[in-house]
Design goal:
Oligomer: heterodimer
Strand content of chain A: 15-25%
Radius of gyration of chain B: 19 Å
Order of helices and strands of chain A: EHEHHHEEHEHEHEEHH
Number of helices of chain A: 9
CATH class of the largest domain in chain B: Alpha Beta
Strand order of the largest sheet of chain A: 3-4-2-5-1-6-7-8
CATH architecture of the largest domain in chain B: 2-Layer Sandwich
CATH superfamily of the largest domain in chain B: Bifunctional carbon monoxide dehydrogenase/acetyl-coa synthase(codh/acs), Chain M, domain 3
Number of helices of chain B: 7
Helix content of chain A: 40-55%
Structural class of chain A: alpha/beta
Number of strands of chain B: 8
Shape of chain A: globular
Largest sheet of chain B: 5 strands, mixed
Largest interface: A-B, 23 and 28 residues
Largest sheet of chain A: 8 strands, mixed
Order of helices and strands of chain B: HEEEEEHEEHHEHHH
CATH topology of the largest domain in chain B: Bifunctional carbon monoxide dehydrogenase/acetyl-coa synthase(codh/acs), Chain M, domain 3
Helix content of chain B: 25-40%
Shape of chain B: globular
Chain lengths: ~260, ~250
């Protein structure tokens, strides 16, 4: 056998909006690429805000939402398709949508143009994750802010749930809420929290979510801010920057690297 | 089932004599993984039909034993070991079948099942992506598979092996085309027509009014071109009646 399908490690990165999920997610992808150059790594931007591609230095032309819309158009034209054909059409297009970079592949959920909720594209995302997970060793998902994708069980196949917060009570509360919903609705093997943008380390002891170990505290990162303002990708961030160091620490604690 | 005979004959005459031709031997079939495999670009030697290159796929079924008398693999153009970069590609399958059933719906389902065999063939290191919408089929061939000696003959044998599991199939001809000088546009047009026949058959079997005026039907061009579709709709006597009505206008 050429490449036996293995159980992928699926790492979902979730938390409140604005706490630095996307930056940490891109740093995770970089750490995995550095640690496992021969492995198959898939990064999924599941946040309609579409920031992960920029952080990873990728230009995205097509998204999962585009595929979903094309499938809807076909069915609206009344064209007859058997389930197996729909599945193969989706698979065909997913590989056109997937961007293959140096060391990892990338998929974006996209931003539905029509006003309204993201339910349908989220359920499509669930199918895509389930279709592709077996083909990769590591899948890193930058989740939409909040609990939506957890509560809709888009991520029911997660192995590692990584919650991100800053030092705000709001951020910590969202992590608490995500943990509660995840316990009820999805299965995961490990959960951990990363406290990002730490301004006052003395306050760290106040940040606690029951049943969730803190994997790393990451101080505010001027190198990342400088990188960001110059439009540089995570791959141009110094190896010893706060974010890279903190993420490495978190992945060690998660026993991923 | 002779709805696709014109397409078989037309394709054969367009392609002419193959560069290579092999008889089927089960023992020569390339290892089949039984499930889809991801070949990433970094692991691929090249992609057949990759990027904007032509990539055509269609399947024709016939119960005329003379059209597909034997299980064989035909190649037009260079074999896998001689391909160095992305190249145009077509895979065409011609299936000889028994007269399946008098029941039209049953016959249609049986044909669809035969056609869908292509979705269950997974040669190792040969990642197929099939788009029923565009009749495209793109293949990523892995560097490892090339080193192991994959060829169109061995992949063709794998296809035939999977088709032969269906007892209604009497003969399989698998045609691979990689010659850049072949008229792929023509092949794509044929693929679309073949798809239209299947769509029309399905529409007829879903139920169309027997007194439907052909002139107002969007499937008329397909029925006009493909012998047998009008019979499927109206029955043999009905066709004569419909033709008479058409002629009298």
């Amino acid at each position: 056998m050429e490449e036996k399908k293995t159980k992928a490690k699926i790492l979902a990165v979730a938390g409140k909006g604005g706490v630095g999920k996307t930056s940490l997610c891109s740093a995770i992808v970089r750490q995995l690429v550095d640690a496992y150059p021969g492995k198959r790594i898939l990064a999924i931007d599941a946040d309609p805000a579409i920031g992960l591609s920029t952080a990873l230095g990728i230009h995205v032309e097509h998204t999962i939402d585009d595929i979903r819309n094309e499938v809807i158009e076909t069915s609206e034209r009344g064209e007859y398709r058997q389930a197996i054909e729909v599945l193969n059409e989706a698979r065909f297009r997913i590989f056109d949508t997937m961007v293959e970079c140096d060391g990892f592949a990338f998929l974006a959920i996209g931003r539905p143009e029509a006003a309204g909720c993201y339910c349908s594209v989220n359920s499509y995302l669930k199918e895509v994750i389930s279709m592709l997970a077996g083909d990769f060793d590591y899948v890193v998902i930058d989740c939409e802010a909040g609990i939506e994708q957890i509560s809709r069980r888009v991520l029911e196949e997660v192995t590692h749930l990584l919650l991100i917060t800053d030092q705000s009570a709001k951020g910590v509360n969202v992590c608490r809420e995500i943990k509660q919903v995840a316990d009820e609705l999805i299965t995961y093997e490990k959960v951990g929290i990363v406290v990002n943008r730490v301004v006052d380390p003395a306050m760290n002891s106040l940040i606690q979510v029951e049943g969730v170990p803190v994997l790393a505290y990451i101080p505010t990162d001027p190198a990342h801010a400088a990188n960001d303002i110059q439009g540089k990708s995570v791959f141009e961030l110094p190896e010893d920057s706060n974010i890279m160091t903190g993420v490495r620490e978190a992945l060690h604690a998660f026993e991923i690297i | 089932m002779n709805l696709y005979n014109t397409f078989i004959q037309d394709t054969e005459s367009m392609l002419g004599a193959p560069k290579q031709k092999w008889a089927y031997a089960e023992r020569d079939a390339w290892n089949d993984l039984g499930e889809s495999e991801l070949v990433l670009m970094r692991d691929a030697a090249f992609e057949l039909g990759g990027g904007s290159k032509p990539a055509v796929n269609f399947t024709c079924v016939t119960s005329d034993a003379n059209l597909v008398p034997a299980d064989e693999i035909l190649l037009y153009g260079p074999d896998l070991k001689d391909i160095k970069a992305d190249t145009p590609f077509a895979r065409i399958v011609m299936l000889g079948v028994k007269e399946i059933s008098d029941d039209e719906q049953e016959a249609f389902n049986a044909i669809q099942n035969m056609e869908f065999v292509k979705y269950h063939v997974f040669p190792e290191g040969y990642m197929m992506r099939v788009s029923p919408e565009s009749s495209r089929e793109q293949i990523r061939v892995s560097k490892k598979a090339l080193k192991k000696g994959i060829s169109f003959r061995s992949v063709g044998c794998d296809f035939i092996k999977q088709y032969k599991k269906n007892p209604n199939i009497t003969g399989v001809r698998v045609i691979f085309v990689t010659d850049p000088n072949v008229d792929y546009k023509h092949l794509l047009e044929t693929a679309k027509k073949v798809g239209d026949v299947t769509k029309t058959m399905n529409k007829i079997l879903e139920g169309m009014p027997e007194d439907l005026d052909c002139a107002s039907c969007s499937f008329k061009p397909v029925c006009d071109e493909v012998e047998g579709l009008k019979e499927l709709h109206f029955g043999k006597d009905g066709v004569k009646k419909a033709k008479k009505e058409c002629d009298s206008r």
